[in-house]
Every structure is written in C-alpha cells, then in structure tokens.
Amino acid sequence: MLPIRVPNATAGVAVNHSQAVPLLSQARRAAATGLLRAPVAQFYDSLRAYILVAEWAPERKANAEEICAHVSAASWPCALVPAPKGQEYTNASIAALEAEGVVTLAPTRPEPPPLPPWLPKVVGPVLRDWLPNQLNASFNWRWNKALGNTVGVIRALQAMQADIDAAEKQQPGSSARTLYLFLEDDALVKSYDTFTADVFSTAARLKPGTWDLLLLTVTPGLCQRSAKLPPPWRVPHDGMFTPRYSYSRTTGMVHSAEGVARLLANLPADNIIDMWIRELMRARKLRIRMHCGDIVTFGATAKNQARRIMVEVNGT
User: Which residues have C-beta within 8 Å of that of residue 168, sequence separation ≥ 6?
Assistant: First the structure.
C-alpha cells in the first residue's frame, strides 16, 4: 500500500497592502477553527491496530469487531485482544500477575496531601491539569473491577512488542515508522471512511522520536473550556498539546514503538491503567501528547449508534 499523503499548505503569494488586512483576518479565523495547518511530511507509513474486547458483553464485542473490520478493509492489520474480567480474579491469580511483573500491590510513592473537596469542582478539567495527582498509595487490586481493563491494555502492549520484535528481525528500523493504534471496545469512531487516514495525518504533526503516546480521546470539556482561558492554560488552535498532570482516557491511543518499550519497561503497574500512565508522565518517564479532535470518542453503546450514523451520513 502506498503511504498516506498529507496535502501541503498552499504556497504563499505576494499581496498588496489593501489585501493584507482581509487575508490576515481570514488567517486568524482559520487558525481559531483549526483549519490552518503547517506543512507536514509523512514519516509514518504503516499502522497496526489492537482492539481490546470484553467478549462477555455482546454490544461491546460487536463494536470492536466492526472497528477491526473497517481497519482491515483499509489494508492494515487489526487484532482483537481479549479483556480479562476483573471480578473473576482471585487472590491466587492476582499473585500470579504479581509474580509475572504485570501488577504490584506494593505502594511505590508517598500518600499525597488531600486537596480541599471544593477545589476540583471550582477549577474544572482545564485548570485541574495543573494540579498534582491525588492517588491512594495503598491501592488494592483485589477490590477494583478495573484490574481486567489494566491487564488487557498491558496484554495489548505485549502483543505490540511481539510484533515490533518480529518486524525488526525482518526489516530493521521498520517499527519506527509504524503507528501502533489501541482502541477499547467502547470507542466511537467518527467516520470509518477516513479513520485511518485521520490517524496518520494527526500523527504526522508530531516529530519522530519526540513522543511515546498520542491520546485521541480527551477529558470532556477540556478543549472547549480552554478556549476562554488565558495562556498558558489555553490549548493551541491546532488542538495538539502536551498535558502536565491530566492523562485523560485510554479509549483511543496511538503508540510509537519507543513508547511501547518504555511502558513495558516501567511495569509492574501499581494502579489502574490510566492512573499508572499518568504517574509515568508526571515522573517524566513517558512523553504524552493529546489531540483535541473527535476522531475517536468514548461510549459506543446503543444510545450512541444513532449519533455515529448521523456523523457518517451528514458529517456533523
């Protein structure tokens, strides 16, 4: 398959003074709506997708299979990764995960000081990005249903690494040009027709070797509310930014090969997957970028299927 091509920005032309002001206003409006893009060169020429699926939930399973079918139809490999059922873990099976180095029950950081209960509600999701993470150091996997999701994401990362190792044996250096896409089974894809092309064009705006993880799903309200705030809290017009404390969601993520290795090197996880990744980011062990687009959202249940169909038909 030929690499996805990203159109270059229109070449600049000389204008007279009378044209300058209207053109400047147009440029500002375009930038404000995210339509103005800097030229990008496509470095990434391959994609592999991994969809986490809860096989005991028929609706989620059907959604995951549908996404995977469309990715495969675009000639990219797609694998369904079974999500373990967290409620079915026993003390013995959790101990086995600890022995494998997947999770740990041991606290790895001091208990953080409590925040005033009113503060998160006041600052909202945007300014909360600046607040230290409030995690319980004595987190206990045995009482948390999210263990299955955490293990499932880690199994997907391990599958990515196996594919990376195989690709490097066959063609050294090829994994650096590959995007490793991860989606959960409740991911809501805006448009199947342009989905993989949108992933390529978004990742093309990142300089190779400078990022580990690109988030395609962001905390609701963060991008919209930030437009009303002064710098440095405001998200850039192009919607691409580096978070400080707020990790957001694992619904849709793109990993670089380097990022996959870095995540696995920092196992075992000592908290649910998004909190664990956020701690790695705060400790400067993981380079995360967020994109305020709507390529992927979360919550692909029956009540959202009508919305997806409307998006497909009307593009709104």
Answer: 174, 175
pLDDT of res. 89 = 83
Look up residue 86 and give its DSSP letter: G
Cβ burial, residue 114 (10 Å; 0-12/13-18/19+): exposed
CATH fold for the domain made of 46-314? Spore Coat Polysaccharide Biosynthesis Protein SpsA; Chain A (3.90.550)
Average pLDDT over residues 208-216: 94
Task: Render pLDDT for 161-175 as a digit per residue (tens, 0 to 9).
Answer: 999 999 999 999 999
- Kind and range of the H or E element at 50? strand 46-53
Write out the DSSP string of 196-246.
HHHHHHHHTTSPTTS-SEEESS--TTHHHHHTTSPTTSSPPTTSEE--SS-
pTM of the shown model: 0.74
The residues that bridge with 254 in the sheet, in sequence order, are 181, 214
Strands (E), 121-223: 178-184, 187-189, 213-215
Structure tokens at 292: 């305020």
297 vs 60: CA distance, rounded Å: 14
**What kind and span of H or E run contains 88?**
none
Q: Provide the pLDDT for residue 13.
A: 35
Q: Are 222 and 70 in contact (CB under 8 A)?
A: no
C-alpha to C-alpha distance for 223 and 236, rounded to whole angstroms: 9
Question: How do the domains of the chain map onto residue ranges?
Answer: 46-314
Which pLDDT does position 282 carry in this prediction?
83
Residue 54 and residue 185 in contact, taking contact as beta carbons nearer than 8 Å: yes
Please give the Cα distance from 195 to 197 (Å, whole number).
Answer: 5
Confidence of residue 131 (pLDDT cuts 50, 70, 90): very low
The pLDDT tens digits of the residues spanning 192-208 come to 999 999 999 999 999 99
